[in-house]
């Protein structure tokens, strides 16, 4: 368990004069900021000319912060290489899918696979780690900043050569690659690895295997870069290392965090997109199990750049965000940024202080967060999030498959978040788990939007089922092989046999007039769908009208002490929401899920457990107020007053912490 909760902000002292720095430190203490993140874009300040590295400014800043009770997460500055690195060297720069070479400026303009970049990044990282790694006050490290946020797969000549090496390591012979990819179609087969192209500009569409595998190559290479920096830092510092990532970026987060010490994410979800915020908390809690995660960036009011801006938060929402995060497993809640930028492309972005040093529209809310942090800290640090019994699998590899094959512009992030929201709205306590997570402790598992279901994942899911759990597979799951081809033994490969069905057809169900009936509800069916004929399974949902009347879209089959449920299509509209709501609760009941509540939509319950008993953190997130039924009498952990069993009301963005003693 963490001994404290952090309330922090990103700070760029290299951009300001001495009098501003002194003022900032004093104002941070007044606002309750107890940790800052520094250094992530400061490479040119650290090394203005190649080989002339001076870190004395940052050593001094860290010492001053520590003397004032403010701790530091130190960053490596590798997203912004200086002009001496980039000028006159197009071979070092990132190249996009259209073959456009990035120029100097902005960030992420260099190719992170370029050997000169790797060399210079390693040198500056080592200098920083050696200079500040043992300084008191440095409590953590952040590698780089938001890998692949603005760029995707690089198409430069360096990446081409490394791509060929990666392919040879993966397949061994070019014949095996041709076979694995089905490359003989359209005469796309190769005679040597150095003939395999990158999926750049093409007259039509690239082979699916080529495109999906290139994304996985890119995922692995950016993770290797992260691993390389982490290994350097560990030679000089014992402080834990992270990276600030997101589901929106072109990375495999599960692979990225594998060699890091704790997980952190950036989020700018607006107040009317609460599930977009909560899903990150429920996912990042599971990237490094047993270690609290950090929210490394969120806005105290609104996100913005020169070209766009988001809706500002209503008063009270920021506190609800923070309390929900701490309750769901966050150790830190941090802002981007402390003082508004006076130059650059993010001048309009929300901040704690304005560029002229005065409170912003979000400042009052920051003070509310600090007040709440102090009020809840003792309870949060003496408990841990309760093990959920319901899990939904998340996969960035699946995101790669849907980028290759988006059908009608399907958006992986939107699909996953929408499905998550349906689970959230049932009041079930839930985890969102990476694809490789062990499934011990879960009773109900959802596997939506996973085109390739691996043998290893299937084995873990079947163990859950054999022990009495329920595994709900689909929609859009299982229809592709690891190399992004279609199965030839059955529509969904091994899933057909395991689920006791024959997949009759897979086709786009939208606009076909197809309706599905299950759990007493009829709804339109949508998305690319699988239609089943039961072999050893029972029909739970049947299709009416459309192209396949009488066929099944939901089946279930006993396996061990549990069930495998196939969800072949996505019900849509209001009726579809009701059907899915009933499906989720039905199988939660069958699986014996007990970690749940009847909390109203827009309000959450975050259950925690400590030596003294269980705690429910109840937070209204939608600004409309809500309620939940307490299962027994409890005690308000802040006021110490008794709270009766039964309905507990919470107001607009209000939170309550109820302790149930052993």
UniProtKB/TrEMBL annotation:
<dbReference type="InterPro" id="IPR003476">
    <property type="entry name" value="Glyco_hydro_42"/>
</dbReference>
<dbReference type="InterPro" id="IPR013739">
    <property type="entry name" value="Beta_galactosidase_C"/>
</dbReference>
<protein>
    <recommendedName>
        <fullName>Beta-galactosidase</fullName>
        <ecNumber>3.2.1.23</ecNumber>
    </recommendedName>
</protein>
<keyword id="KW-0479">Metal-binding</keyword>
<dbReference type="Pfam" id="PF08533">
    <property type="entry name" value="Glyco_hydro_42C"/>
</dbReference>
<dbReference type="GO" id="GO:0004565">
    <property type="term" value="F:beta-galactosidase activity"/>
</dbReference>
<dbReference type="Pfam" id="PF02449">
    <property type="entry name" value="Glyco_hydro_42"/>
</dbReference>
<feature type="domain" description="Beta-galactosidase trimerisation">
    <location>
        <begin position="388"/>
        <end position="593"/>
    </location>
</feature>
<keyword id="KW-0378">Hydrolase</keyword>
<keyword id="KW-0862">Zinc</keyword>
<feature type="domain" description="Beta-galactosidase C-terminal">
    <location>
        <begin position="602"/>
        <end position="659"/>
    </location>
</feature>
<keyword id="KW-0326">Glycosidase</keyword>
<dbReference type="InterPro" id="IPR013529">
    <property type="entry name" value="Glyco_hydro_42_N"/>
</dbReference>
<dbReference type="InterPro" id="IPR013738">
    <property type="entry name" value="Beta_galactosidase_Trimer"/>
</dbReference>
<comment type="similarity">
    <text>Belongs to the glycosyl hydrolase 42 family.</text>
</comment>
<feature type="domain" description="Glycoside hydrolase family 42 N-terminal">
    <location>
        <begin position="11"/>
        <end position="375"/>
    </location>
</feature>
<dbReference type="InterPro" id="IPR017853">
    <property type="entry name" value="GH"/>
</dbReference>
<dbReference type="Pfam" id="PF08532">
    <property type="entry name" value="Glyco_hydro_42M"/>
</dbReference>
<dbReference type="InterPro" id="IPR029062">
    <property type="entry name" value="Class_I_gatase-like"/>
</dbReference>
